[in-house]
Amino acid sequence: GENVEQHPSTLSVQEGDSAVIKCTYSDSASNYFPWYKQELGKRPQLIIDIRSNVGEKKDQRIAVTLNKTAKHFSLHITETQPEDSAVYFCAAYTREMGSRLTFGEGTQLTVNP
Amino acid sequence: DVKVTQSSRYLVKRTGEKVFLECVQDMDHENMFWYRQDPGLGLRLIYFSYDVKMKEKGDIPEGYSVSREKKERFSLILESASTNQTSMYLCASSLATGGLNEQFFGPGTRLTVL
To answer: What is the C-alpha to C-alpha distance for residues B3 and A110, in angstroms, rounded to an integer?
Structure first.
């Protein structure tokens, strides 16, 4: 089955800096890669996703890149703000696994004012 | 807005008790999921269901069962709770195309087994 690894587990940056979180996946058949953000005490929510026919996608200050050859994808947050502090989860979808996602272990991002 | 609700935010049970966690979604989603969230381990899938009365095992089904008698409701059952089942439990739902669609999560139930 699919295995998703996420790094780093914790990340601390100064406000205004950029943050990058990386994930690798094992199943070359995976074709959809969402990112979820979970603020403290709240439920995870989708913030951006990318499909395997696209190399990069941007939405304001966040972007996701995908390298299918190397089987890794990354979340980039620019001009970080304190409200970006949260746990971020990457995930991968493989059709052969049914209607399910496989999540990474999560990254605790702290943005220091 | 999609709304996914869970029956309890906090639950305290004793070892050996039978525990029911309920999840309800109001958007007519076909797929429903139960995850367990533990620090450093991410979101681990326990069971999921893509239709009424259908269920599929996830990565950690041992010690759990599920029930989906109605489309909007998905129940997680701990037949005999154990201390290692102390965790945050998250329910989610999505449209029929499953992983290709956004999963909407409930607020979570923090279960403590004493």
So the answer is: 28
